[in-house]
């Protein structure tokens, strides 16, 4: 049997499995999935797990069941593109005929001293569990600092405000206002929500150091019982170590057909891929759909399309606690209860269609 190896059961890897199984995988092929977890995790909802408003079980989706799907629970330590092999942390070497790399991202600390040691993360399920435990154990009326006011930081800060109303929550943002990539009206709505709900937002911040029990904003010491880092991401180390061309963010530059140049059997999906959009679950799923299309052409030995259709993104939705939200649907900004209901509906539909 020939082997299609999928590294990572994130949104992209999961979509590849769903599209190929049970009927579209050639009879002489099998799929080997490599992941650390025994289920697909809903990363877009990690903020709720960290804040204590969603259970661990709520964020799990089971893998497809198929006789030709083999799952290895391991960590990838090296990818050998020339040798068509993968090294795992258990010492096993795994050969592949085709490979889909979907290992996701990790925090980027921008060289801030102590950030990698003294902050908590919501980038992986295991890291988010540790963050939940730390936040759950913060003393009454303690101080929690969240570095980074992108979507993850905003959702975590708002959810934590509802979960722990006793806490003093500080949100540090490098921009003039939170969610500055959105239209000013929407950004102002989110900023005002924080003002009305007692979240201290520090705009134009510059975190210069993190120590046990404190961080420094423009070198001013701010005492904190816990510091959560949501201020940027980068591909995981095993991808950063790959000797292939990358963009300035460390993401792998691909052909229009989503494989590595000169390596037509190695595809990259999701946060590790250099694409003209910000990384998102929606983007990873759209890219995975196109990867499956290319795989089918290759299996049938058909000519590959020179260009792929532009991946259409429906929009972005974020939550502000359980009752309010914000987002963009096409060019239309949404705020309030409607945005929050839409986000809940999208999550429900995803879990429903994923079984």
TrEMBL record:
**SUPFAM superfamilies, per the entry:** FAD/NAD(P)-binding domain
Domain FAD/NAD(P)-binding, by residue range, is 3-282
Q: Does the keyword Calcium apply?
A: no
Q: Which Gene3D superfamilies match?
A: 3.50.50.100
Q: Which InterPro entries match?
A: FAD/NAD-bd_sf (IPR036188), FAD/NAD-binding_dom (IPR023753), NADH-Q_oxidoreductase (IPR051169)
Q: Which cofactor does it need?
A: FAD
Lineage, top-rank taxon, reads Bacteria
PANTHER family with a match to the protein in the record: 64 KDA MITOCHONDRIAL NADH DEHYDROGENASE (EUROFUNG), APOPTOSIS-INDUCING FACTOR 1
Protein family (similarity comment) = Belongs to the NADH dehydrogenase family.
What is this protein called in UniProt? NAD(P)/FAD-dependent oxidoreductase
Organism of provenance: Shouchella miscanthi
């Amino acid at each position: 049997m020939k082997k299609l190896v999928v590294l990572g059961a994130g949104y992209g890897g999961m979509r590849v499995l769903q599209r190929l199984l049970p009927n579209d995988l050639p009879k002489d092929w099998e799929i080997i999935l490599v992941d650390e977890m025994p289920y697909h995790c809903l990363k877009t909802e990690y903020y709720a797990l960290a804040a204590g408003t969603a259970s661990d079980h709520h964020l799990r989706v089971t893998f497809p069941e198929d006789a030709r799907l083999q799952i290895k629970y391991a960590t990838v330590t090296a990818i050998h593109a020339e040798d068509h092999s993968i090294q795992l942390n258990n010492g096993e070497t795994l050969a592949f005929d085709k490979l889909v790399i979907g290992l996701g991202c990790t925090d980027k600390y921008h060289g801030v001293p102590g950030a990698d040691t003294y902050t908590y993360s919501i980038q992986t399920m295991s890291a988010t569990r540790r963050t939940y435990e730390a936040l759950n154990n913060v003393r009454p009326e303690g101080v929690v600092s969240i570095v980074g006011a992108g979507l993850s930081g905003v959702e975590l800060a708002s959810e934590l405000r509802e979960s722990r109303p006793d806490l003093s929550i500080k949100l540090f943002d490098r921009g003039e206002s939170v969610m500055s990539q959105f239209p000013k009206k929407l950004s102002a709505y989110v900023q005002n929500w924080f003002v009305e709900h007692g979240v201290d937002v520090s705009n134009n911040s510059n975190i210069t150091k993190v120590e046990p029990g404190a961080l420094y904003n423009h070198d001013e010491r701010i005492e904190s019982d816990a510091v959560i880092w949501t201020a940027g991401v980068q591909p995981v180390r095993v991808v950063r170590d790959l000797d292939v061309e990358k963009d300035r963010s460390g993401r792998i530059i691909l052909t229009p057909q989503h494989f590595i140049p000169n390596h037509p059997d190695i595809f990259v999906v999701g946060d590790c891929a250099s694409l003209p959009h910000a990384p998102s679950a929606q983007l990873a799923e759209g890219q995975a759909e196109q990867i499956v299309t290319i795989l089918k052409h290759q299996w049938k030995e058909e000519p590959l399309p020179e260009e792929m259709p532009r991946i259409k993104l429906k929009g972005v939705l974020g939550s502000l606690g359980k009752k309010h939200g914000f987002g963009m649907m096409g060019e239309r900004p949404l705020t309030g209860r409607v945005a929050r209901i839409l986000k809940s509906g999208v999550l429900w539909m995803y879990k429903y269609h994923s079984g």
